[in-house]
Amino acid sequence: METTLRGVGVSHGVAIGEVRHMGTAVLEPPAKSIPAEEAEREQGRARQAVDAVAADLMARGNLAGGEAQAVLEAQAMMAQDPELMADVDRRIVVGSTAERAVYDAFAAYRELLAGAGEYLAGRVADLDDVRNRIVARLLGVPMPGVPDSDQPYVLVARDLAPADTALLDPSLVLGFVTEEGGPTSHSAILARALGVPAVVALPGAGELAEGTVIAVDGSTGDIFVNPGEAKKAELRAAAAERKAALAASTGPGATADGHKVPLLANVGGPADVPAAVEAGAEGVGLFRTEFLFLDDSKNAPSEHKQVEAYRQVLEAFPEGRVVVRVLDAGADKPLDFLTPADEPNPALGVRGLRTLLDHPEVLRTQLTALAKAAEGLPVYLEVMAPMVADRTDARAFADACREAGLRAKFGAMVEIPSAALRARSILQEVEFLSLGTNDLAQYTFAADRQVGAVSRLQDPWQPALLDLVALSAEAAKAEGKSCGVCGEAASDPLLACVLTGLGVTSLSMGSASIPYVRAALAKYTLAQCERAAAAARAADSAEEARGAAQAVLSGE
Ligand code: PEP
Ligand code: MG
């Protein structure tokens, strides 16, 4: 039967496909005791699960080839290690279930590895993954992590962390649905980067049965469960119509009367560059460098590796602008070797620039790598710091840039209300501002961006957020400097017009949104955008603000 659910649409387009759940961490199997006559059967179950997991790892290794193959084959061998299997058998004989025996035998082996020197300790994560796979198989629950599927699917998850999403194969993911997360969560950001439709904050997403066909409308937030042929055809036709209208829009971003608003791309690394170029991005407005740091949980990437990655992005935009954000670790983007594990409120703790000031060697390596990457290129490099709270922060960052010999513009992200309130003071130290509206909303409304239940307060149309945007843009204008937006607010076509009316000087977004924003801006004059902005700021809620701006722009 066709049913409809409603979440928050965060990435345009329609996806129709089967549900595949992101496997969650494997729970500890209960320590119940089995009668002796069941031991043989349990040993058979354990052996079967181990063999199936090993075969699956080998098959995936064959498909992947290269370095990944070596890692997967080593994992398959771990699974079938004779001593481990003997331990599993022993534990079953004394009364464990197969899943509990596997769990405990791996735990014992894990301890041995963890204490056996750095190299073997580094294999603990691989061992845990093998254990989780075997236990999941025995319990009949989805494999942990990204689904193993060679057919395209709609990914359903509680929420997605950057570390999970780095492993996704974009050619297989038709769209995302998450139970948690708001419009600025990483699931939403990643969906826009991949250009796939997404709906977040959908209560009950976890209960959608594996394999059910759903249609995801990322524009409206509607999810149609078991859609009929008529509904599928209707959704596909509407999506095709929107796409055709967009294809007609090209060229640099500007209002109808020629006020230029450069449209820039948000990227996570060189892999996102082709889509940015194809969408006609005029440069990069936010290079989230965190993704380079996810491969190794213990160390920062070497200077050499960083130079390579930065250079690839810089080379893609000759004569263009590329704004690189230095590492933003902590809170929703934790890194084991930098982020304190015991903070009661990680979003209010040591994250972003605070982390870098505590680890000056990481910042120095990053800035030196950027200086080397930009050498000899005609690109306009700009470097900015996340989570700048005040002028002291801004000065510390600018000093570090100068010490690294970086020939670039230095900027500060406005993500904390204090930075918007004292933007002129911060601009005494840096040359530009970039509004991170995702975090700015989180900190203005005390609403965690990862919690679906407070997504109402994460809405970037909130008039209080618009006030802070206006304050920052006015300060930059008074100082003769620029103030862009690189948070997700910039990717909403109507809001992009309002932000322009508030005085922001560039808009940076996931590449897939650029054509939508370009088309919207081209329809209105700067004066119309300013009137829409004033109407939105005069409203008392996000919904009213959106309605008021819409009414002004459609001439109602
Ligand atoms: C923001 O907070 O708006 C932003 C652009 O940074 P991130 O989403 O990576 O925290
Ligand atoms: Mg941020």
From TrEMBL:
InterPro entries found in the cross-reference section: PEP-util_enz_mobile_dom, PEP-utilizing_PTS_enzyme, PEP_util_AS, PEP_util_C, PEP_util_CS, Phosphohistidine_dom_sf, PTS_EI, PTS_EI-like
A cellular component annotation (GO) from this entry: cytoplasm
Residue span, Phosphotransferase system enzyme I N-terminal domain: 6-123
Domain named PEP-utilising enzyme C-terminal: residues: 251-524
Cofactor entry: Mg(2+)
EC number: 2.7.3.9
Catalytic residues (UniProt): H186 (tele-phosphohistidine intermediate), C486 (proton donor)
Domain PEP-utilising enzyme mobile: 151-221
Pfam families: PEP-utilisers_N (PF05524), PEP-utilizers (PF00391), PEP-utilizers_C (PF02896)
GO molecular-function terms, A-Z: kinase activity; metal ion binding; phosphoenolpyruvate-protein phosphotransferase activity
Keyword entries, A-Z: Cytoplasm, Kinase, Magnesium, Metal-binding, Phosphotransferase system, Sugar transport, Transferase, Transport
Localization annotation: Cytoplasm
Residues binding Mg(2+), per UniProt: E415, D439
GO terms for biological process, alphabetical: phosphoenolpyruvate-dependent sugar phosphotransferase system
SUPFAM superfamilies hit by this protein: Enzyme I of the PEP:sugar phosphotransferase system HPr-binding (sub)domain, Phosphoenolpyruvate/pyruvate domain, Phosphohistidine domain
Record field: catalytic activity: L-histidyl-[protein] + phosphoenolpyruvate = N(pros)-phospho-L-histidyl-[protein] + pyruvate
UniProt-annotated binding residues for phosphoenolpyruvate: R288, R325, N438, D439, R449
Alphabetized PANTHER family for the sequence: PHOSPHOENOLPYRUVATE-PROTEIN PHOSPHOTRANSFERASE
Role description: General (non sugar-specific) component of the phosphoenolpyruvate-dependent sugar phosphotransferase system (sugar PTS). This major carbohydrate active-transport system catalyzes the phosphorylation of incoming sugar substrates concomitantly with their translocation across the cell membrane. Enzyme I transfers the phosphoryl group from phosphoenolpyruvate (PEP) to the phosphoryl carrier protein (HPr).
Family classification: Belongs to the PEP-utilizing enzyme family.
Protein's name in the database: Phosphoenolpyruvate-protein phosphotransferase
Source organism: Streptomyces alanosinicus
Gene coding for it: ptsI
